[in-house]
Each structure stands twice: as C-alpha cells, then as structure tokens.
Amino acid sequence: MSHPTRGPRTTPPERSRELLARTWSYLLSGAAVVPMSRDDLDRELGERLDELCAALHAEPFADRPVERIGERLVSLGYVGEAGLRVTVDVLGKGLLALPEFQPVEAYAQRVLLGVGALSCGFLAANRRSVFEQQESMQLSMLKAVRDARWNLRESEARFDEVVTSSASGVLVADLDGRLVRVNAAIAEMLGRPTDELVGSDLLDLVHPDSRKHLAEALRGLAAGERERVRQSQRLLRENGDVARISLTVSLVRGGAGPDQPGHFVAVVEDGTELMLLQAELHRQALHDVSTGLPNRQFFTTHLESALRRADPVRGVTLYHLDLDAFGMVCNSLGRATGERLLVHVAQRLTSVLAHEKAMIARLDGDEFAVLVENTATTPDIGTTVAAINRELSEPVYLDGHGLAATVSVGVVRRPPPDSSPTEVLRSAEQALRRAKAGRRGQWELFDPEQGLADRATDLLAVRMPGALEQGELTARYAPVASLADGTTTGVSARLLWERPDGAPVDHDACTGLAERTGLVLGLGEWHLATACGQVAWWRQSGFTGALHVGLTRHQWCDGDLVRRVRRVLGDTGLPADRLVVGMPVGVLAEPDAVDGLTVLAELGVGTSLDDFGLGPDDLAAVADLPVRLVRVSRRLVARQLAGDADHLAGLVPLVRAAGAEVLVDGLTTPEQAAWWHRAGAVAGSGPLHGEALEPHVVAARFGPRTG
Q1: Helical (H) or strand (E) element with 547
Q2: Which of 28, 230, 678, 697 shows its CA 20 to 30 Å from the CA of 103?
Q3: Where, if anywhere, are coiled coils annotated (predicted)?
C-alpha cells in the first residue's frame, strides 16, 4: 500500500520576521542597556526589521532609510559597540535565512549593503551622542565652577557680616598666632582700636599666668589632637584692667591643601555680665521670688550644716509656721493681696528675729520656716511664738483693708546633730499638724514618742486602700437584741481590718483612718453594699431584722450620699425600711448632712442619732428631725454601770416623748440590760448580746437569747 509523499514544512514570511526580531531583541538586551521592557523591545525591533526589509526590497536600493534605522538603535539607550556587534551578527545571518530573500545569491549583495548602511548610521549617531554628552558635561563643570565661586563669595560676605555685627568678639589668627582679622566687639572689650590689634600676637593679649596653658592648647588643636578649645581666660585691657572672658578657638582647614591647617578662629564672650547673670540665677534658684527669703532647697542645705555645727548643749530650734486664714484672704481679696500679705509677714518675721542667729525661709504657699541657732540669750519657745503672733497681729493696710495675721507653729527643739534635714523638717510638720488640729494660733512641740505613733497611724492610713483591694477588710455583724425578751431584732455592721502583719484594726479605728485620707467615701459605700447584700440574703432564710450602719461626718457631708444609698438598695434588693443609717450628734451642725438625713427618711430609710447625750440640742434635734432611733452614748452607759444613774432615769422618757425609740450600746450584764429596759429602752447591743462576728456565726444566733 502506497502513502502520499509529505513535502517540507514552510514558514509564512510574517512568522519568519517575528522570530528574527525576537532573536535580535533577546541578544541585544543581554549586550546593551535599554530602558524598555522585553515586550516593548520586541515590538520596537520588529518595526525596525519591517522597515529594513522594505528598504532591501525597494528599487533602486537607497542607503539613507537604512542609516536612519541605525540612528534609531542609538536612541534606544546605551547600545554601544557590543550592541552593534550583536545587531550585525543577527541581521547578517538572519536576513539571508528569511524566505523572502531567497535565493541567497540574488539578495546577498543587497543584504550586505543594508547591514553596512545600518552600521554607518549607528556609528554616526553614536559619535554625535558622545559629542553631545561631552559638551553637556563641560557645561556642567563650568556651571559648577561658577556656582562654587559665587557660593564662596557669598560665604565670605556672610562671614564678614556675621563677624562685623556679632556682639561676641571674633579674632582670626594664622598658625603662628598672629592676628590677621578682628571685629569691633573685641576691640571694644579690650579698649583698643582694631588696626592696633591686627598684626599683634594672640598670646600677648592673654594674662601672663594663662599664656602657657593657651599655647599648649593651640598646638594640640593644630596637630589634630583636639577639635576645639574652650577656656575661661583673662585678657588684658588697654588700661591695665583684666577682662574675664570665655574663649572658644577652632581650627579652619584649607591652607596648603583641603586637609591642611589654615588658621585659628577665636570667639570671645565677655564673662563679666555672664558671671553676674549666673550669680543672679543662682540667687533666684535658692530664694523665693515674692518675699526674697531663702526657699526650701536653700533652707534644707543650711539646716544640714547648722545641725553639724550646733552647740552640743543648746542646739538649734526649728519653727514650722503656717499662716492662719491665708486662704480666706486670697478668696475674698484676691491672690495678689495674699502675696503682698506674705511679703509683710516675711518682713515682720525678720524684724522679730533680728537679734537672733536665725534663718527665715518660705517653704511652700503660706508656710514659713525659722531655724534659730540657740545661744545663752535666746528666748524660750513660748516667748518667741508669742512675739511672732504679737507682731503679726498689728494690722497692715493693703488696698485699703486692714489685715492682721496669726500663725500656727510646729516646733522641734534640739534635734540630734546626726539627724537628717528631711527628718527634722518632717518632725516639725507633724508637730504643726497637731497644733492646727481644730484650733488656730497655737504651737505644738514635737514629741518623739508621739511622732512615732503619728507616723504609725499615717502608715496604716495610706496602706488601707491596698488592704481593701487585697480583701483584708471585712464586714462583721453585732446582734441588736430586744431588751424585753433577748430576741435578735437586727444587726449592726462593723468593719474589721485583719492585718497579716499586725493586730486587727476595729471599726472605729478603720473609719478614723479612712477619714484622714478621704478613702471613707469609697470604703463606706463598699461597706454599705456588702452589709445590705448580706442582710438581703439572710432575709431569704427568714430574717426580718433591721441593718444598722453608722456613717461618719465625711459621709454625711457627701453630696452624693443619697445617690449612693439608693444605688446600693437597688443593687441588693434590700427594702429601704430595713436599713437604719446613724448620724453622730456632732454632725447636726452641718446643714448638708441634715438635708441628707431628711431626704433618706422621706425615701423610707430608717435614721438614728448616734452617740446621744443629755444636751438640750440633742433632744431638740430628735423632735425636729425624722429620727426613728436614738443610740445612747457608751460613756452614759458606762456611767450608769458605775452607779451614776439618777439623772439618766429621765432620759428615755424625754426621747420617747420626742417621737423616737432608745437603743443602748455597750451592754455588758443582764442587770444593766434590765435597768435600761425598765427605763424604757427597747433594744441594746454590746458584749452581753455578742460582739461583731462573721456572717455565718451571727446567722446561727438568730432567735431568742437567755440571760
């Protein structure tokens, strides 16, 4: 069986050109730098190949169209000799292999002429490009030289302007120290004309005692051992005086070569005004601006040295003074008047202590300190404080207002010489706080034992927030029992701080500590919420008694008290009539506190007056306010137990006549409870009925008690 014969495969002319153009593009991109993508280069060379083939087919053959193709190659980028070699090699072989240039014998000469014309066009265009680049580079170099010269002239002019107008003295010296240029400022400093200074030796202007030191520094600068020289120097004036100056010398290079030393440039600052300014700044840093007295920093330093040199027998005495009612002066007459009053106080203190070896300082705000180095004639503390207050009590007229002042004083007498200034100042501040406790115009002598106790109390107060966060503070509950049958009618919530590193702190001490720092508001709300939540939970087990919570003065004066109580009752679900909040009778003088008590009573919350005494104002308050209970003061209960009960028998009927029931706190014996029951009291609490205990212990005691 015969098969048809298959002829040779032929490639279309367009496809042959495309393959040749891609080969040309591939080899050219490897030999030249062309800023085109491969696809763009393929397209560009394909178009140039089409133009070349058209020129080779044209009759008659012309060189110029082919030369333009060579010129176009130069414009593609940095093609160079390697690119031309690749182009000639690819086209010389590839064109003769194209079907359209067959037979080879017929087109060989024309292809050879075309490749030659392309090379000629390429070389001519490449030569022009090189010439253009050289011309552009030459122009750039000429411009750079011109710009450098202009910048140099501008820099020199600017330097001249700076040197001429500078308030600092400027001297330019050669490497031998000979002055070649100076400005008017240095001439004025030295009292010499500029033309006299030029040509002189820099070292001749320096005081003889300092010349050697400056000469060594200049040699090190010229040798490259230092970048610049800074010295405090003394220059000689024309009249023989000495000018104290600050000298800074730098080395400018560029003499015989770029890195070779050229000349010295010295800048001179007149140190006279600078020293005065430094002295004034130092004085201001150590003195109060308003009064001119030493400030705390200066006083502390002085105190340290005074303690070391103090007479071993008489020692020193430190007075820490606080101006009474200074805030009222500033509030009513303005801060400016207050500052003028402080200046007056400083002057009066200076006058009183003029005959003593004493330093008076303003510490902070309206606080002053006086340190007296005692002698045989130094008055005692009481006499000194009395003299100060007597002098300050004389009115001074400021802005038409006659003002007088008094001071509260904390005193430290003869502190040990090895005491630190900080410790002594802290002791005086502690004594001042005790002097100001509820009174003004008094003085208090620091007692080391009392000071230790105060610091221990302060330490507890500042540690209490952390104790609350760590769960060391808990709520305990003391039963409130009926005096008729001993049944539990309620519980009184009490705080207890179970310290891991010390003895427990009871309720009264906890609230006292919290009052000192302001923590009592947050702590009181936490205590109220904890107790209300506990009683609400007990109510689910059948407990029907009331919760008694005593509030402090700070809590009653809190503008948010009513909102806090309402929020706690809402969160815990405890009915308002099951809560009884107690107000100390000492708070009745606070209008805001009384308003808060009235609002809480209107909301259904029970109210009581705690620490109730026998005063007529206490009884009047029971009649005027919506008070449900009166909690008799423990001191009255103690007096009844001691047998002093005649005047107490009529107390309960008076309270009941005013519309309140009586609760007795601090009962210890059945006989005592019976006496108060006969007097008309309805309930009591204390050791007889159980101390404040943990919630689960108190819950187990709900129910009647037997005497």
Answers
A1: strand 546-550
A2: 28
A3: none
Instruction: Locate 294 and state its tokens.
Output: 């030493």
* Residue 276: exposure state from Cβ atoms within 10 A (0-12, 13-18, ≥19): exposed
* Model pLDDT, residue 9: 43
Residue 453: Cβ within 10 Å count: 11
CB 597 within 8 A of CB 579: no
Using CA of residue 7, residue 13, residue 14, residue 19, what is the dihedral sign? positive
- The secondary element (H helix, E strand) that includes residue 684 is strand 683-685
**Burial bucket for residue 335 (CB in 10 Å: 0-12, 13-18, 19+):** exposed
CA-closest candidate to residue 432, choices 380, 369, 382, 510: 369
Q: What is the pLDDT of residues 294-311, one digit of tens each?
A: 999 999 999 999 999 988
Tell me how crowded residue 312 is: count the other CB atoms within 10 A of its CB.
Answer: 7
Phi/psi region, residue 77 (left: phi>0; alpha: psi -120 to 50; beta: rest), is left
Q: How far is CA 541 from CA 485, 490, 537, 544, in A?
A: 22, 14, 7, 9
Instruction: Mention every residue, 6+ apart, whose C-beta is less than 8 A from residue 13.
Output: 98, 99, 100
Is residue 445 a contact partner of residue 317, using CB atoms and an 8 Å limit? no
Residues listed for the chain: 707
8 A C-beta contact, residue 207 and residue 172: no
Region for residue 674 given its phi and psi (left: phi exceeds 0; alpha: psi -120 to 50; beta: otherwise): alpha
Nearest Cα neighbor of 264 from 230, 237, 235, 228 is 228
Q: Are strands 396-398 and 367-373 parallel, antiparallel or unpaired?
A: unpaired
Distance CA 231, CA 245 (A): 9
Whether residue 581 contacts residue 606, with contact meaning beta carbons closer than 8 Å, is answered with: yes
My answer on whether omega of the bond before 103 falls inside 30° of 0, hence cis, is yes
Nearest-angstrom CA–CA distance, 520 and 346: 38
Secondary structure string (H, E, C) spanning 248-285: EEEEEECCCCCCCEEEEEEEEEEHHHHHHHHHHHHHHH
DSSP per-residue letters across 601-613 = HHTT-EEEEEEE-
CA angle in degrees (0–180, nearest 5) for 312-316-319: 160
User: Bridge-partner residues for 250, per DSSP?
Assistant: 228, 265
Low-confidence spans in the chain with pLDDT less than 50:
1-10, 703-707
Say how far apart CA 78 and CA 71 lie, in whole Å: 12
Q: At what angle do helices 13-31 and 38-57 cross, to 10 degrees?
A: 120
Rounded CA separation 73/24 (Å): 12
- Cα separation, 658 vs 679, whole angstroms: 16
pLDDT (tens digit per residue) in 124-136: 888 887 787 777 7
CA gap 30, 48 in Å, rounded? 19
Q: Which two tokens stand for residue 490?
A: 């309620």
Closest CA to 629 of 671, 665, 603, 595: 665
Q: Is the dihedral of CA 138, 141, 142, 143 positive or negative?
A: positive
Paired tokens of 535: 């009683």
Q: Distance (Å, rounded) from C-alpha 56 to C-alpha 115?
A: 10
DSSP state of 552: -
Give the Cα separation of 431 and 448 in Å (integer): 10
DSSP tag of 380: P
Summarize pLDDT for 85-105 with one digit per residue, the tens. Answer: 888 888 878 888 888 888 888
What is the C-alpha separation between 596 and 556, in angstroms, rounded? 7
- Classify each residue of 415-435 as buried b or exposed e, where b means 16 or more C-beta atoms within 10 Å of its C-beta: beeeeebeebbbbbbbbbbbb
pLDDT of amino acid 163: 61
